[in-house]
Amino acid sequence: MRGGGLWQLGQSITRRLAQADKKAVARRCFASEAELKKTVLYDFHIANGGKMVPFAGWSMPIQYKDSIMDSTVNCRENGSLFDVSHMCGLSLKGKDCIPFLEKLVIADVAGLAPGTGTLTVFTNEKGGAIDDSVITKVKDNHIYLVVNAGCRDKDLAHIEEHMKAYKSKGGDVSWHIHDERSLLALQGPLAAPVLQHLTKEDLSKLFFGEFQILDINGATCFLTRTGYTGEDGFEISVPSENAVDLAKAILEKSEGKVRLTGLGARDSLRLEAGLCLYGNDMEQHVTPVEAGLTWAIGKRRRAEGGFLGAEVILKQLEEGPSVRRVGFFSSGPPARSHSEIQDDKGNNIGEITSGGFSPCLKKNIGMGYVKSGSHKAGTKVKILIRGKPYDGVVTKMPFVPTKYYKPS
Known about the structure:
Elements (H helix, E strand, L loop, with lengths): L5 H14 L2 H8 L7 E2 L3 H6 L3 E5 L2 E6 L4 H10 L1 E5 L4 E6 L3 H6 L13 E8 L5 E11 L2 E6 L4 H17 L5 E4 L3 E7 L3 H6 L14 E6 L2 E6 L8 E7 L3 H11 L4 E3 L2 H10 L26 H6 L5 H10 L3 E8 L9 E3 L5 E11 L4 E9 L8 E6 L2 E8 L13
Parallel strand pairs: 1-3, 4-14
Antiparallel strand pairs: 2-3, 4-10, 5-8, 5-9, 6-7, 7-8, 10-13, 11-12, 12-13, 15-18, 15-20, 16-17, 16-19, 17-18, 19-20
Helix pairs in contact: 1-2, 1-9, 4-9
C-alpha cells in the first residue's frame, strides 16, 4: 500500500466503522491479517482500540479511538507515541564501515562527529533514490541506520551485494540487522519532559540529530533525537521484550496527554512538515537534487563524488535539475497523488505526489514535482482533480514550522 493514501484510508475506515457492523467491516478490510507480520506491540494496539491495516507487509494501526484530525493536532499540542517497529534498524561495523557506506549514500559520513547523524539517500547508478535513511555515526567503527519498511528487502539486498564485493577486496565491514529490537517514535512538545522521567541522563544536552546509548525505563536503548513529524522528539530502539513496558510507561508519565497515534496522523504530520515519503515523493527515478535534498549532499561529497550515480547528481548540481519538488496550497477537494498540475495556459507541468487536508492549518496542502521555472513560490497553477481544474499556488515548505531541538 502506498503511503500517500494512508490519510484517506483512515477516513474511509472511520466512516465505515461508524456506519456498519464493526465485525463485518473488520472481516472485509483485514482478510489478509493472518499473512501479515506483527510487531511486539500488536496486542497492545488492539487492547487500546487500534484499527489495524496492512502496511508494507505488516499489520499496523492506522488510528485509534480518536480521529486522524484530532490525533494530528494533539501531537503538535501535546505529543504522540508511534510504533514504528516495522522499520528496519541495522548496524554496520568494522574499520572500513564508513568508506564502504560512503559508496552507497550521499552523506559525508566521515565528517560526522561520533554520536551524531543525518538524513541521507541511498542512490543507484543513475542517481535515483533507492531509499532515504537516517544514519548515525555511533563511533568510527560503528554506524547505526534505519531504513523504510517497504524498502527493507531491496535495501538489504543492495547493501549485501556491495558488501560482498567490498569484503572480497579486503575491506573490513560487517553488519547486524536489529530484528531483536523494536522502535518507538515519541514526538511533540511533551516528548522530552515525559521521557526525562524514565532516564537519569540529562536529555537537555541531547540535540536534534544526536544519538546516545542509555538506560530508559530499565532497558538499554538507542536514543536518537529525531522523528518525522517536524516536532521535537525521539526515536527509541528498545529490546523487544521491553517495548510494551516502555510504551505503557511513556503514556502513564504523560498523564494521558501523549496518545498512541497511528499511521494516518503520521502521514498528515510528515506532509505538514514538508517531508518526503518514499514510494510517493521519492522513487528510483528521482534524484536527491530533484527531491530538494541538495542540503543532504555533503560538501566533500560534492567535490569528490565516489557514490553511486555521482556523475548524474553532480551534473544536476552544476546545471540545475529539469524538475523540482515543491509545495502547494489548493482550493476545492484535497489534491491526491498523481493529480495533474497545469500552468495558467493549460499546459501540463507536473503532478502531485502527496496531498491532503491539513488538520493544523485547516486548508489543503500538497507536494509534487513541476518543471524548473514553474517552481518559484507564488506561481499560480491549476490542479486537476477528477478531471476538473482547481486553483493552486506554489508555496515554500514546511507548511507548519518545525520545532527541532537545537542549540540556541
